Fold this sequence. Notes:
mainly alpha; Rhopdopsin 7-helix transmembrane proteins; 13 helices; transmembrane helix; G_PROTEIN_RECEP_F1_2 domain-containing protein; membrane
Amino acid sequence: MASTSMATTTTELPYCVVSDAQIVLLWPTIDLFGINIYVGIVCISAVVLNFVVLMSTKKFRRQYSVVIVLCVAEMFAELGIILEATTRRPLFLDAIAAKRAEKMSSRQCLQPWVLSQTIGDFWCPSLEFLMGLERMCAVTFPHFFRRIFVPNNIKIILFVSLVAALFVITPTAITIIYPTDNVRWSCGRKAAYGSNFGLVDYSYNVIGFSLAFTFNLIAMFNATSIKHTKQSALNLTKLKCYTAISFLSTLLVSVPNLFSILNVFTTVSSLLMTPAPILACANGAIQFFVYLTLNVEYRQRFIDLVTFNRMKVVRVKPLLSFRQASTSTFRASVFH
C-alpha cells in the first residue's frame, strides 16, 4: 500500500502535454510568425538606412543625436520581433508534432529575443519622451533649453538611457537569482519576468509615447506665435518630424499596448491583439519615411548617398527679364 502511494507522488511528467485544443490555437500564430519574419527584415532595413543617413554628416550627428540613439533602440525592438518568430515558430511546430513541450523555468526564458524586445520596450518610449520634452522646452522655455539641454545633450541622453536600462536590468537580475519553475513553455516576457511585469511594460509604453506626443503638440501650438526666421524654420521642420513620429508611435504602439493592459482585467478580442508585433515593426521603419517626406536636407542627403553624390541640386531665382538670364539659375537635378 505504501509503495502505491509513493508511485503516485513521483509520477510528475518531465514535460508539458500539448492538447489538441491548444494545437488548433497554435497554427494561426505559426502563420503569423512567418509573416513577422519578412516584415521584420524589411522594417529593420529601413531603420538601418535611417541610421546610416543620420550618421553620414557631422551636422546631422549634432542635430539629431537623440534620433540616432533612437534608431539603435528601434533595432533592438525590430531584432526582437524577428528572433521571436525564428525561435518560436520551430518550437511550436515541434510541440505540435510531439504533442508535448519541455518544461521551462523563468531563467530559461531569458532568451535573446525576450531581452531584445524588453530593451526596445523601455528604451524607445524613453527617448521619444526626451525628444518631446526637448522640443517643448526649446519653443516654450528657450532660455532653459539653451542653459540645460544644449550643453548637456549627451549627458541627458545617457541619463534617460540609464533609466530605461534599470527597468530591464533589475527584473532580469531578479529572474536570474530567483527563477520560477514551470512557467509557460513557449516563454515570453511574462514567463521570464512575471505577469505583473507585463503591466509595467505596457503602461510604460503608453505613458511614454503619449507624453511625447503631448509635449510635441504643445510645442507646435506655441511655435505658431514665433516669428519665422531661417533658424526657426529649421527648428519647425525638426518639430514636425518629432510630432509625426510621436503621433505614429502612439497610434501603432501605445494603442495596442492599451488593449494589452485592458486584457489583464477583462477579455479583449484577439483581432485587436494579434497585429501588435507588425505594428511595432512599422513604428520603427516609418521614421525613415517621415524624415524623407518632411525634411528637405535629409531627403537631399539620402539622394546623395544613393547616387554616390552624382546628383546635384542647383537652386536658382526665377527670371524677371531676359537680361537677367546670364545671372539666373534654375532648380534642377543633374548628373555629371
